[in-house]
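Exercise: predict the structure of this protein bound to pyridoxal-5'-phosphate.
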Amino acid sequence: MATTLRPTVAEIRLSAVRKNLQKLKRTAAPARVLFVVKANAYGHGALPLARLAEREALCWGFGVSSVEEGLALRESGVISPVLVLGSLYPFESFVEAINADLMVTIASLDAARQVTAAAKELGKKAVCHIKLETGMGRIGARRPSVLKIYDELEGSGAVAVAGMYTHLSSADTDPAYTAEQLGFFGETVKELKERGARGLTFHAANSCAAVNIPASRFDMVRCGIAAYGLADGFEPAMTLKTKIVFIKNVREGAFISYNKSFRADRPMKIATIPAGYGDGYLRRFSNKADVLIGGRRCRVLGNVTMDMTMVDVTAVKDAAVGSEAVLLGRQGTEEITAQELADIAGTITYEIVTLVSGRVPRVYAE
Ligand SMILES: Cc1ncc(COP(=O)(O)O)c(C=O)c1O
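Solution:
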């Protein structure tokens, strides 16, 4: 890895990810756990976490969003099952997926024909999971198409149907809608079984459903956010932190940051930290978020800039160049949660961690 001098890092606690996955495994059993590591494991680093999970048998396999993400896992030595959750295009992607033993999602008859053609061309059996639309409105075939796809793939001799799944849109907000989605899914499972489908893995649950709705677990649960600790009862794995690089005292009336976006109403001591929206620390946090320095909450002053952010350290007598600043996570008894930042930005915790940018080194700690 390139030399890291800038003190801004995302520290990922492996012990937290391990504990979270163990808890998911216990909760979901006998259903298996597919550890969703798409989007660089929601910003936590897909390769180190997948290697950890595989080495310690913390999950059955991995969920990724694209063939590229699956290939990266294979190139780093991961041999567990990998399911590509996205709909593949261009269709040449099927060739790459089959070659690398990635299971693919088939959500249309067209894709079913393409994966069959790719498998025949390679002379290698493709393995797929069929995706059923039950109310997410993203990708998925309707029930009659699912049955047709199943018949066509099974009849082809070139593709093994290993599973059928759906995705819940509102497991955390709308129990009635979720029950409807699960009911529809359950009926489709029954219909496939009546058609003679045997040995398929049926799955529907994301983290929230896996933990709270036993009837959603079927044969496997697909968990991302809880594994990263951003669900009730789980331990957050990521701390985003840096160090003060500049400090100054200003008089009353001094302006801070672009567009004079903060004006000091009294003499203040102000720290500059080397993290900004180029690191995924959102501009929406300007004048609203807190940063932990010396174990205290210190308010962000003025607009967050691309690479630097100013913070009020008037109350932290010993704050100095080199003092640690925590933007997300714990310091002493204080904590900035992803939910707190998400509320400020009008978003969800998923986005807060996933947006931590590529230039922030991920540092792994036990
Ligand atoms: C198809 C699919 N399954 C499972 C998940 C995991 O969801 P969660 O992170 O809420 O556990 C996702 C994430 O968005 C997904 O797109």
